Amino acid sequence: MKRNIYQFGAALASGIVFGFGLSLSGMLNPVRVQAFLDVFGNWDPSLAFVLGAAVAIAYIGIQMMKQMRHPAFDHSFQVPTNRKIDAPLVIGSALFGLGWGIGGFCPGPAIATLSLGIPQTVVFVVAMLIGMTFYDRVWSRTP
Amino acid sequence: MTIYLESLSGGMLIGASAVMLLLLNGRIAGVSGIVGRLAQGVGLTTNLAFVLGLMVGPLVYLLLAGGLPTVEITAGWPMIMVAGLLVGFGSRMGSGCTSGHGVLGLARLSPRSMVAVATFLSTGIIAVTVLRGIGL
Prior knowledge:
The complex is a heterodimer of chains A (143) and B (136). Chain A has 143 residues and is an all-alpha fold. Helix content of chain A is 66%, strand content 0%. In chain A, helix 2 (30-37) packs across helix 4. The N and C termini of chain A lie far apart (40 Å). In chain B, helix 5 crosses helix 6.
């Protein structure tokens, strides 16, 4: 029970830092995301620094994880083990990228901006949940 | 110059958040995975806590920075809906998005994530280039 509360607190704190980082980074602004992807036009490379910095810090965390037997509040680390590059990975990522470019939102910023009361992000998140649910409950279960 | 520093420090915080979730709870801070599992009712409390925190983040920014983060949306309603459907379906099919594959996948040096990131950056560039080409 106590462990559940710690896990809840850790997830909440991690989410807050994530949402704050997104706000500071400029990733919440679809116009800037699209300008980052507009490499053949009026390219704004600034958001590359977001990914670069996040990866660098996360890399340190991954090295720390390798020195630990288990995470602080659970029995084991749950990290993907699949190493196969298959069609769903490539097709799914391609579709995701198209949507990211068209709307300028990826899942993190879309969820984070829900608290700002912008109607477009609410509609985006509803559509995103429909897309996710359709894949998880229909597409991936159809042989 | 300021926007580069903000992007850099914002990115460091995103990385720090991912490290927190990894070393404390042993979980990958991939937003599409967390939201997808939440929608399926898996790991309800921790996934809900992360999503709630994510929404609180911009409000903390409001308190500390004294203003809301800028959100400028140029896409019309049909585009917003199509984009949402593609992002939701694609991120689940591809097992991740900008956070799971982009941040943690690259940090883990995962070949799958490298392919995913190269793919979604390419199609994202194609989407924006086409939209600009047709004047949107």
